[in-house]
Amino acid sequence: MNSPLPEPALAIAAAADAPAVLEARGLSYAHGAAGPVFSHLSLSIRRREIVALLGGSGCGKSTLLRVLAGLARPAKGEVRFLDTVQAAPHPRSALVFQQASLLPWLNLADNVGFGLDFAHQPQTGKAARDERIKAAIAAVGLAGREGAYPAQLSGGMAQRTALARALARQPELLFADEPFSALDAITRAEMQSLLVDVVHRWHTAALLVTHDIDEAILVADRIVLMGGRPGRLLHEWTVDIPRNREDHPEAVGALRLAILGALRHAS
Amino acid sequence: MMGANLLLPLSGLVLAALAWAAGSVWLAGVTPIAASFAPLETARALLALLQGAELWEHVAVSLERVAVGLGVALLLGTPLGVLTGLSPLFSRSTTPLFQFARMISPLSWMPLAVMVLGVGNAPVYFLLAFAAVWPILLNTAAGVAQLDKNWLLLARSLSATRRETIVHVILPGITAQILTGVRLAIGIIWIVLVPAEMLGVSAGLGYFILDARDRLAYSDLMAAILVIGFLGYLLDHAARTLHKRWLHAA
Ligand SMILES: Nc1ncnc2c1ncn2[C@@H]1O[C@H](COP(=O)(O)OP(=O)(O)O)[C@@H](O)[C@H]1O
Ligand SMILES: [Mg+2]
């Protein structure tokens, strides 16, 4: 689980023909009596794949993420997680929000381990849980800060803790809803590469909701563009620019233009 | 920096003591017995009282009443507050009543309380609890309303049971607000306590003040006033410290 970074090219190759961790088909969803937020929407995420869900604000990204994560029931369609129909949030999926939303009365280690001992989580011993918590904290570079309380953490450190909290669940799939948009530019860049790094090392897939094209290009293996009313997936790009992608400005720039063009076409 | 931090509050206290001294000198000119209101006389009486057992007994009785009143208010106010925060129906049907009852000075219930509950501790407990329940109830309700929605999402993403959600998220999540309510409640209780103890009881700081007046022991009376102020300050400080500790704020 904690093995050193594999060859990035290898990781992507593994993702390309890996089985799906999540498969959603024909999803529709409406808030109460309002018109559907999205309809007839299908999306599949392969193991270890990082998918960026890109779209303007209000287009329904967060709602879709909630349905995919099992936190809201679709009006139509089904979500399969590891090949079984998902009726409740799967224990091997984890969430990261825009705000770290740490529990201020728990210290960093207890925040990271929050809920691991809940009744509907896989039963583990205390020693195994502590080991997981330790590994997750180390993975986000916060070893030594286990006793700190949220009030004492900077925004970046709080978001690292939130990421560790998700990792401690050994997720097959990480749902992240604009996790870095509240951070300053430098911290955001650090967190983006940290995310790619841990997702590769922990062999996790990720669905990253973002409205930032550059973030999508730097982080994702695949980008899907959401838009329209009701929302649907308009376009999809496989990002085969080698990492680190900052070192390939022409390829990044070209993809950026393609996405911008599609965005303009969509609105 | 440290010096200035202490100097300013101290200067306020010293100024007040000087004004007190000047006032009592002036008052002694009008009525000679007022000389025993003076700071020096009061300090002497305070020292004697602190060394004796009597004052401490009254303090103990008063603090016990505060504890009981606060305990009852917590026992009633927290669940009602949670209910108000969770159920719009309950909230809408009770808010006017609560706002109405809250604005009635608890002391106005005193004659009624004594009539129904008899003389002794019971009416005092009632008045204190009645005074303290509103800030606790309202702050608890506000705490529930202000719970971070993501905490609840997190609990749901962990398939938390109802009990796990309440014990691990909701209750600790509103504790800070409850403690804010407790702090306000202590302030109100402490103010209501003294007059509430002036009726039908034979111990406590309120009783002690009336007793000192009847004995014409004015320095004792002034000493008791100082003790009341100091204890109130300590109680408030304790509540504030508890609040900070809970949030681990610097
Ligand atoms: N709880 C809700 N009740 C009613 N409408 C909602 C609710 N949450 C979101 N919406 C609406 O659904 C649409 C999609 O919202 P959202 O999924 O948050 O978009 P995004 O994350 O892409 O910004 C918006 O028009 C929003 O106003
Ligand atoms: Mg959103």
In terms of topology, how is this protein built?
The complex is a heterodimer of chains A (267) and B (250).
Chain A: H1 8-16, E1 20-30, E2 36-46, E3 50-54, H2 61-68, E4 76-81, E5 84-85, E6 93-96, H3 108-112, H4 126-139, H5 155-167, E7 173-177, H6 185-201, E8 205-210, H7 213-219, E9 222-227, E10 232-238, H8 249-266
Parallel strand pairs in A: 3-8, 3-9, 6-7, 7-8
Antiparallel strand pairs in A: 1-2, 1-4, 4-5, 9-10
Chain B: H1 2-30, H2 39-51, H3 54-86, H4 88-102, H5 110-117, H6 121-145, H7 149-157, H8 162-196, H9 205-214, H10 218-247
Bound molecules: adenosine-5'-diphosphate (ADP) and magnesium ion.
Adenosine-5'-diphosphate is lined by residues 31, 34, 37, 55, 57-63 of chain A.
By CATH's scheme, which homologous superfamily of chain B applies?
MetI-like
Low-confidence parts of chain B, pLDDT < 50 over ≥5 residues? none
The strand order across the widest sheet of chain A is 6-7-8-3-9-10
- Taken from the alpha-carbon principal axes, the silhouette of chain B is elongated
Mean pLDDT of chain B: 91
Portion in helices of chain A:
25-40%
How many DSSP H or I helices of chain B?
10
Which pair of chains has the greatest number of interface residues, and how are they split between the two chains?
A: A-B, 26 and 24 residues
Q: Which CATH first-tier class of chain B would you pick?
A: Mainly Alpha
Distance between the termini of chain B: 18 Å
CATH superfamily membership of chain A, which one?
P-loop containing nucleotide triphosphate hydrolases
CATH topology of chain A: Rossmann fold
Radius of gyration of chain A: 18 Å
Number of folding domains of chain B?
1
Number of domains in the coordinates of chain A? 1
Bound molecules: adenosine-5'-diphosphate, magnesium ion
Instruction: Give the integer mean of the pLDDT values of chain A.
Output: 91
Instruction: Tell me the helix content of chain B.
Output: over 70%
CATH structural fold name of chain B: MetI-like fold
The oligomeric state is heterodimer
The number of E-state strands of chain A comes to 10
